[in-house]
Amino acid sequence: MQILVNVSKTMIKKKSRLTALDENLLEEQVTLFNIDEMLPLVMELPLEFRMVTLLYYYEDFSTNEISKMLKIPNGTVKSRLARGREKLSQLIKW
User: Does the model's pTM come out above 0.70?
Assistant: First the structure.
């Protein structure tokens, strides 16, 4: 989830130069979401993205461990995590 937050902040900074006030407001918005509050949104993801997201962020398994558990390539795990984060950002509607 922190990666999603950092990427979002970077994208916003690139699109426009933020003033100190804007940055403080952005930081407050970011802290509104913690990992436990994200769970209902994670549960809305399609099964393939939900499984790897839950295992990675909530159960703290590595991508290698997840790939062995699900019997899928490590690259597939990473791409599903990336796509899951993308879908979560759409659900959050930043």
Answer: no
